[in-house]
């Protein structure tokens, strides 16, 4: 039989509560501006795990999580199933809203941001037939990842994803020509009045330049918390590669330009961008240090650098060379260095322009020099281009094995041969790039098909 | 590509009634047999006589139902619900609507998509709140009265048990109706406010009958599948004789202008021309007269509605004679009041997807948004009424919390799990029935692959098929709550159709009245009211 009175029991409970409260307060007291708070609050702060340390705090998200108590996981599972259902049934507006709901519940789960952003930009956009609609969904995906960076400001992967969407999806998909144009002039005239979507491209820059900024941010964040996307050297190549891709895109753009002046200007701009890109590639990216299992090296290293690295790492110079070679091959470093070095040369830009102009002249039926104006025809223009191209491939031997470079030269040669054929002229014994034509005979059939399909 | 359009399926009332009679009759028969055996076991030879005597008494109770007493119980129930602060649900409702915009992201570039989200939010919120209030009140009403012995003050009056059950149902139903109407008004105002600058429409579609022609022009049961997981749309090949053939019953009023509205889906097998979307055309035909009237081609806009006005007199170029001719829509093209429209894809190598809901003739003028909205609200109301009926019935034989649990289970089985039950009964469930699933689980066999031992597979499937009759009955005992969801029509700016939405929901709700009242009556009659 319990002998204590009710009052005594209540007092005992009260004392017990006070005793238990002390460690709870000590551990869990929230931090304030002046004090660090309890042990948990201090640890949260020191490991950057607090909501405010991770990024912007969204009161809606916090409310949802609080209201659901321990049922967040179940709610997320149901929402994810709904999301898949809506996607399968092509209920896009509901799918988009469900995406938002998922993210309200999991604002710091990076893979959720990454997957859903990719889903919108790549999967959903492909479901649409009209290119402006596809672009809308690409933007939705990119914007979604951008919002992810605001909620997770220290996470490098989300910044990298945004960069990838603006560079690869906009710049390299089948619709790249339209997407690149829409990136600076949104097709939604009603909302953006001929301007770019300010949420995506407030300064109306080229997509690769916007991507470059995001990649640069990703690199900066990567220094803090690292990343888990890919090999570090590849991850960090983003901003440098984006600049080279920009120059490459300018060269691709000219095929859709009707004016010779604009073509000349774009080739010239591409050359200066390649110049800038080359400088960054070798002096910045090439000098970044990467740790292998054995040593810490950088890719742009001459003999002296190799010797210094060997000494620094306490290893043989041969080992260092092998490590550098490994990084260079993985990142395709040497190709891009040589490509940029070649493309920044005035003769290279001129070779591209002449080959392309030669094709245009052929297309317009101007096969040989105009006797009245003295303007060159397709044959002369292509011969000049071939000579410059031959010089390029002599100076940069590494490019001889690059598919696109070979294809461009072979295409120029094919059209030149057609131009001669139409004029009833024989193919001369010797001509620039003869070795290229003979070496790559396997390509001729497919190029001929392409030529036939173009209806020249 | 637009969302897979709503697929109207006409409800077969005669078949519904037939099924109801089978299920109701079977359950009644089984109950009678069980009762008979129980009476024999309890009272020996006098048992059946006692049982039939009780049934006769019940018949008398039902013959002498008094609307006045039912109304009195209903009024009492209503007052009791108000006293129990059921109307406090409006506070939750108000809070949800005040903060709704926090959770619903507006889309400035695609505001028309937002309407669907707003409508969905309003209907979901209202349904859940009213269901919750109605369910809890109805489940706890009678058990609480029994516990507090306040029911004694009712049963000692000349009120029959069936009148108590009906009165309760009516009372709680009225409370829910009041709440629903008030919330519905607020919800509509909220949608209108949120959709400022947008047109809230209620288009009235006349759906047709769909069949497909393959690339050779031969009739085929369905269109091609281009790899969609959900095979709602059939696809036709562009630049061939392939076509989706729709047959519409034209309005008897023979309006001078018909509006075609379509939401087809395009599928490309090659990049093709990216400057425009895939092109299609309508061809109106009358096979008896050998008439083919092609209308002007159009670019398929997947996002917005493809609208095409067709006047009564149509000028067209005859494809055979290449001469300009004129036809009358009703006198020349229509056959017994039916108009046949062939939809063709014009781009070679590309495909056009169509389903029945993708193309309709639009009745003009459109109705007001309120018409569709309140029709869909009737759907919610019917669902709430059904739940109240089930809850009151459950509260007649179990206590409040158990009744709540029962209602929750019925609701879960009736909505998300009904699809599973359908597949189980029709044998379409991937991985088979219970026995086959168990075997696959134990043998770690994938659900989608055939079993290695074919003999075993056949045996398992046979075992699973044995209880298919009772499964079929069980499936029909659980109300299909999906029938009541009509918000999707309103969200897409369409009128809620009578035959494929309103009628089935009404039939489902009506079908449960008699079984619920009977079950509630007998349960309450047999219940020991002194027992708490």
What overall geometry of chain A do the principal axes of the alpha carbons give? elongated
Strand order of the largest sheet of chain A: 1-2
Report Rg of chain B. 28 Å
The biggest beta sheet of chain A, please? 2 strands, antiparallel
Q: Largest inter-chain interface?
A: A-B, 28 and 33 residues
Distance N to C terminus of chain A? 108 Å
Low-confidence parts of chain B lasting 5 or more residues at pLDDT below 50?
Answer: none
Notes on the structure:
The complex is a heterodimer of chains A (456) and B (532). Chain A has helices spanning 6-28, 39-46, 51-54, 59-68, 72-88, 92-105, 110-126, 131-151, 156-172, 176-184, 189-192, 207-225, 232-235, 238-253, 260-283, 303-313, 317-331, 333-343, 346-363, 378-395, 403-423, 434-439, 444-453; strands at residues 290-291, 296-297. Chain A is mainly α and 456 residues long. In chain A, β1 (290-291) and β2 form a beta hairpin. Chain B is 52% helix and 16% strand. Chain B is built from 18 helices and 16 strands. Chain B has helices spanning 13-43, 47-63, 67-83, 89-98, 100-103, 111-147, 152-155, 161-194, 329-333, 369-397, 400-414, 418-426, 434-443, 454-465, 468-477, 487-491, 498-511, 513-526; strands at 202-207, 209-213, 219-220, 234-237, 243-249, 257-262, 265-268, 279-286, 291-294, 298-299, 306-311, 313-317, 324-328, 338-345, 350-354, 359-367. Chain B folds into two domains: 13-201 and 368-526, no CATH class; 233-354, Sandwich (Jelly Rolls), CATH 2.60.120. Classes of the chains: A mainly alpha (456), B alpha+beta (532). At the A-B interface, α4, α6 and α8 of A face α6 and β7 of B.
């Amino acid at each position: 039989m319990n002998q204590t009175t009710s009052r005594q029991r209540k007092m005992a409970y009260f004392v017990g509560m006070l005793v238990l409260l002390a460690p709870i307060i000590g551990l869990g007291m929230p931090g304030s501006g002046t004090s660090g708070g309890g042990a948990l609050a201090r640890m949260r702060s020191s490991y950057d795990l607090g909501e405010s340390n991770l990024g912007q705090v969204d009161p809606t998200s916090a409310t949802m999580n609080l209201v659901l108590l321990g049922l967040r996981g179940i709610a997320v599972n149901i929402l994810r199933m709904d999301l898949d259902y809506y996607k399968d049934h092509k209920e896009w507006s509901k799918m988009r809203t469900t995406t938002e709901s998922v993210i309200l519940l999991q604002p710091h789960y990076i893979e959720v941001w990454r997957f859903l952003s990719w889903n919108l930009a790549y999967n959903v956009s492909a479901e649409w037939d009209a290119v402006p609609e596809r672009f809308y969904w690409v933007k939705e995906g990119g914007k979604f990842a951008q919002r992810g960076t605001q909620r997770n400001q220290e996470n490098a992967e989300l910044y990298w994803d945004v960069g990838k969407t603006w560079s690869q999806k906009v710049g390299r998909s089948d619709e790249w020509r339209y997407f690149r144009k829409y990136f600076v002039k949104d097709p939604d005239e009603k909302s953006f009045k001929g301007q770019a979507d300010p949420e995506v491209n407030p300064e109306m820059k080229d997509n690769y330049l916007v991507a470059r900024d995001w990649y640069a941010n990703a690199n900066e964040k990567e220094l803090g918390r690292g990343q888990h996307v890919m090999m570090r050297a590849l991850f960090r190549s983003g901003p440098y590669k984006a600049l080279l891709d920009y120059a490459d895109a300018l060269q691709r753009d000219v095929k859709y330009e009707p004016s010779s002046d604009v073509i000349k200007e774009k080739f010239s701009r591409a050359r200066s961008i390649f110049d800038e890109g080359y400088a960054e590639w070798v002096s910045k990216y090439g000098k970044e240090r990467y740790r292998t299992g054995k040593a810490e090296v950088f890719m742009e290293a001459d003999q002296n650098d190799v010797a210094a690295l060997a000494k620094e790492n306490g290893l043989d110079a041969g080992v260092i060379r092998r490590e550098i070679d490994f990084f260079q091959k993985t990142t395709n470093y040497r190709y891009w260095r040589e490509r940029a070095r070649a493309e920044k040369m005035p003769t290279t830009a001129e070779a591209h322009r002449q080959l392309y102009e030669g094709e245009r002249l052929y297309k317009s039926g101007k096969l040989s020099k105009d006797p009245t104006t003295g303007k060159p025809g397709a044959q002369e223009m292509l011969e000049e281009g071939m000579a410059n191209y031959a010089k390029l491939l002599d100076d940069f031997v590494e490019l001889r094995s690059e598919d696109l470079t070979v294809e461009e030269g072979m295409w120029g040669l094919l059209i030149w041969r057609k131009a001669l054929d139409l004029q009833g002229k024989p193919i001369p014994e010797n001509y620039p790039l003869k070795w290229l034509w003979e070496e790559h005979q396997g390509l001729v059939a497919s190029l001929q098909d392409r030529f036939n399909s173009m209806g020249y | 590509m637009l969302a897979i359009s709503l697929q109207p399926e006409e409800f077969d009332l005669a078949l519904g009634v037939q099924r109801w009679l089978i299920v109701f009759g079977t359950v009644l028969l089984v109950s009678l047999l069980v009762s008979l055996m129980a009476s024999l076991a309890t009272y020996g030879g006098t048992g059946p006589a006692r049982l039939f005597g009780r049934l006769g008494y019940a018949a008398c109770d039902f013959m002498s139902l008094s609307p006045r007493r039912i109304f009195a119980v209903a009024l009492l129930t209503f007052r009791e619900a108000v006293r129990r602060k059921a109307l406090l649900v409006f506070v939750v409702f108000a809070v949800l609507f005040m903060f709704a915009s926090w959770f619903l992201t507006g889309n400035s570039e695609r505001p028309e998509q937002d309407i669907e989200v707003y409508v969905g939010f309003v209907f979901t919120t209202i349904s859940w709140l009213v269901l919750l209030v109605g369910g809890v009140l109805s489940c706890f009403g009678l058990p609480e009265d029994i516990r507090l012995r306040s029911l004694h003050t009712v049963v000692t009056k000349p009120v029959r048990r069936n009148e108590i059950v009906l009165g309760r149902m009516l009372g709680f139903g009225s409370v829910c109706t009041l709440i629903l109407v008030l919330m519905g008004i607020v919800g509509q105002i909220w949608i209108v406010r949120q959709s400022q600058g947008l047109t809230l429409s209620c288009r009235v579609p006349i759906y047709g009958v769909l069949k497909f022609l393959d690339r050779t022009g031969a009739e085929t049961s369905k269109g091609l599948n281009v790899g969609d997981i959900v095979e709602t749309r059939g696809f036709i090949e562009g630049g061939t004789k392939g076509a989706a053939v729709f047959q519409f019953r034209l309005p008897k009023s023979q309006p001078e202008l018909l509006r075609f509205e379509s939401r087809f889906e395009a599928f490309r097998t090659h990049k093709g021309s990216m400057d425009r979307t895939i092109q299609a055309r309508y061809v109106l035909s009358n096979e008896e007269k050998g008439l083919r009237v092609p209308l002007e081609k159009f670019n398929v806009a997947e996002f917005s509605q493809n609208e095409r006005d067709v006047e009564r007199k149509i000028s067209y170029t005859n494809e055979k004679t290449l001469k300009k001719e004129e036809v009358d829509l009703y006198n020349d093209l229509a056959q017994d009041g039916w108009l046949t429209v062939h939809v063709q894809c014009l781009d070679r190598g590309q495909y056009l997807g169509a389903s029945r809901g993708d193309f309709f003739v639009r009745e003009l003028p459109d109705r007001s948004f309120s018409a569709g909205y309140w029709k869909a609200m009737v759907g919610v109301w019917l669902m709430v009424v059904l739940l109240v009926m089930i809850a009151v019935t459950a509260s007649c034989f179990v206590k409040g919390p158990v009744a709540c649990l029962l209602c929750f289970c019925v609701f879960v089985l009736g909505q998300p799990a009904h699809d599973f039950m359908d597949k189980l009964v029709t044998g379409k469930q991937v991985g088979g029935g219970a026995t086959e699933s168990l075997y696959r689980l134990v043998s770690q066999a994938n659900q989608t692959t055939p079993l290695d031992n074919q003999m075993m597979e056949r045996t398992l499937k046979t075992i699973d098929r044995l209880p298919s009759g009772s499964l079929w009955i069980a499936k029909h005992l659980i109300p299909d709550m999906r029938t009541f969801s009509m918000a999707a029509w309103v969200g897409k700016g369409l009128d809620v159709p009578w035959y494929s939405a309103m009628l089935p929901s009404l039939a489902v709700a009506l079908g449960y009245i008699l079984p619920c009242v009977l079950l509630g009556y007998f349960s309450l009659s047999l219940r020991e009211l002194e027992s708490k």
